Amino acid sequence: MNKFILVGGGTGGHCIPMLAVYQKFMELNINCQIITDKRGSFFFKEIQQNDITIIKTPTKMISKLEQLINFPIIFLQTVLLMMNTKSAHIIGFGGYMTLPVLLGAKFTNKKISIHEANAIMGKANRVLSNYASNIFITFNKTKMINERFNAKVHTIGLPLRDTFKEIVVDDEKEFIITIIGGSQGSSSLSHKVSEGIVKFSKKINSKVKVYHQCRPEDVDTITNKYLNNHIECEIRNYFFDMPKKIFESNIIISRSGSSTINEIIYTNKPSILIPFPFAVDNHQFHNANFLKQNSCAEIIKDSDLTADLILHGLLGFYNNPDKVDMIKNKLKGLTHKNTSERMLNYIQDSDVTQ
To answer: How far is CA 193 from CA 81, 187, 190, 250, 264, in A?
Structure first.
């Protein structure tokens, strides 16, 4: 196969793995392009713009009615695009827009594969499983996969950005906590978590340092709260150097999107996870529960979240270094390596045999 097209849009959960695969394929001198939507284009600003096609839609694809209106428009755009593409293998990374794009690709006799980032397969990927040459999954025992597709299911993990593999950090004297609010931000992760960290800083003998991703409207309030309690902090709506922040940290407090979960696994960090309660199919809970079942994380329901629960969770790690060491060792055993290369090998094998 002389060309690959990666498809996905919307959130970082779909786009960050695409970016990782794109970077690896380009490094291997493999022709690779991206199809995304307007929101997804945010994550691809630093790559060659002529390698990106942005799908145009009349609405934002948020409601089911909007998705229904956009479906034939995306499908037709894809068919026209694929008719001008001689040979390509199309890889979908989940989310609504992958359904009409990959079906359009299949309509023009292109081979397709899909990657499921979460611990429960999304609705679009459930449909596309019928047509895909390969089904790549991040977590073993991913739910909602039809057993008749088992022969083409491959557990490879989640492709991670090269920056995760290149970082070297200095030993830090402070106890560092990183809070990752997800692409949508969260009021509870801004206020209740910061209150819990303030309480934690007053309980321990170490200096606390905080990296906190939060909503733009909360930046000033949260910054002042930390500074007023003598806590060194860096507060942003988005950290472009998040890999470095995670590597430096002692503990991660976060939503439980697949990208974050796999970054936690790769960096071997203990974590307190607060699944987004309105995630489709409750997939964030299933992602978090993967680490919980492996005794590597604590889960707090969003509806139960209090400053005292954050305090209790932080102290549970801080006061138990043996527990932290056990978590690090377990996470090392869960880490997937060379995911993009393995994806490529499976696709090349399937293209030869089909």
So the answer is: 46, 9, 6, 16, 18
Asked if 200 and 315 sit in the same domain, the reply is: yes
- Is 186 found in the same domain as 105? no
**For residue 232, what are the CA distances in angstroms to 174, 209, 210?**
9, 5, 6
Q: Dihedral of the CA atoms 228, 231, 237, 241 (nearest 10)?
A: 160
Summarize pLDDT for 229-287 with one digit per residue, the tens: 999 999 998 888 888 899 999 999 999 999 899 999 999 999 999 999 988 889 999 99
Laid out side by side, the sheet with 175-180 consists of: 232-236, 208-213, 175-180, 251-254, 271-273, 297-299
Which residues face 176 on adjacent strands?
209
- Assign 36 to helix, strand or coil: strand
**Tell me, what CATH number does 116's domain have?**
3.40.50.2000
Assess whether 284 and 312 both reside in one domain.
yes
Is the domain of 296 the same as that of 285?
yes
What residues have CB less than 8 Å from 210, skipping those under 6 apart? 176, 177, 178, 179, 194, 197, 226, 231, 232, 233, 234, 235
Cα distance between residue 196 and residue 341, in whole Å: 42
Please count the structural domains in the chain.
2
Q: Are 72 and 51 in contact (CB under 8 A)?
A: no
Same domain, 82 and 201: no
Condensed to tens digits (0 to 9), the pLDDT of residues 13-35 reads: 889 899 999 999 999 999 999 99
How is 91-137 classified by DSSP, letter by letter?
EE-SSTTHHHHHHHHHHTT-EEEEEE-SSB--HHHHHHTTT-SEEEE
CA distance 234 to 232: 7
In 3D, which of 311, 294, 303, 296 has the Cα closest to residue 276? 303
Parent domain of 41: 3-158+336-353
